[in-house]
Amino acid sequence: MADAAGARSAVVAAEVSKTFRVPQEQVHTLKERVLHPLRSSAYHEFRALQDVSLAVPKGEFFGIVGRNGSGKSTLLKCLAGIYRTDAGAIWVDGRVSTFIELGVGFNLDLAARDNITINAAMLGLSRREARRRFDTIIDFAELRDFTELKLKNYSSGMLVRLAFAVMIQVDADILLIDEVLAVGDAAFQQKCFDEFEAIKAAGRTVLLVTHDMNAVKRFCDRAMLLEHGTVVATGDPESIGNRYLDLNFSAEARAEATALEHASSAPVQALDTLFGDGRAVIEDAWMEDAQGNRAAVLKNGEPAAFTMRVRFSAEVREPRFTVQLQNGARIPLFTASSGWGAAAPSGTFHAGEEAVWRAGFDNVLGPDRYSVTPSVTLENGIVVAMRDRMFSVVVTRADQHAGALVDIPFDARLERLPASEPTGEGAAR
Q1: How far is it, in rounded angstroms, from Cα 220 to Cα 208?
Q2: Going edge to edge, which strands form the sheet with 354-362?
Q3: Which domains does the chain have, with CATH numbers?
Q4: pLDDT digits (tens, 9 = 90+) for 7-30
Q5: Per-residue model confidence (pLDDT) at position 262
């Protein structure tokens, strides 16, 4: 099918809608069935998609973004033929390979070797071709030592690596990928990035659902923003990514700011992971905005600060107070420590003593959500106290944002040079 410009489309959706019936009250026992015979018929309808249209030309890398519950995964499942649409039409021109839901297409009671053969065959390869590509698949997934292990004993990261490796080896014309970057370590994510570059160079069609706006801006030719099952906008990745950040963080930021105001000076609720040898406890930690107020939202380009309060239960000599901010991919983008530079020695703290450490900085972080990890360590690396990802903070974008992970201030100057006088043979003429 061709779009309005005459280009051949690989994927087209025309006014697609999808509704789910969600039970309000469920009957779980025979007693409930007798006492409440009509309860099982109580449903409400949830409109996951409403009149969604798109046209993706062959060879395009197309991003689909939106907040949780916006309909991204539902749309991808409709395009893959997993869900039937209630209204509208879908055309797909080419062989499709999907990475939509962790474990889908795998038999968890079989080993990796059998699953690779079966899954590759389901995606269009012959049994002989699947076996021929087995080594390539298993090596890409880095699972050579686990080929005979049943998949039910695999971690989620191992399943992701295996599923992604199978998907890219079946030579499909169209790849439908849902949140492949959400699970897996940094090394695997980099392998995904490298493979995305190769896929783009090969001219294959990709529809990518993700929350990673940096990936959208890096790989996608166009992107679409969904909200409550409807299309908000379709356009260039930069503008769509910025609209997503504004939509997502403005709503969440207001909720977090309201919660923080109601909490007053109470300690931050810690849904975090604790480490350390027990000689100290990080009792409280928070971020401060340019006005010195506790803040769950910081603005790019303005001064900010981190503060933590530590109580010691035993003697600790020369502790180092540190804070680290990481983005969603667990990439450290800011670290400050009392043990760096010309900072004075911290001294010795005894049982019952408390310390408050504050680190101010110019906020050059790009718009995103960042996890905050405070820690108290010794010079030899021993961890006295740490609260891994103790809380998160949102950075909203300034009026002008370069779209990078960080916006480093710079001073630039343009100088106009006078035209040079012609010399030599040219001057004689």
Answers
A1: 8
A2: 280-288, 303-312, 354-362
A3: 9-247 (3.40.50.300), 273-396 (2.70.50.60)
A4: 689 999 999 999 998 776 666 667
A5: 43
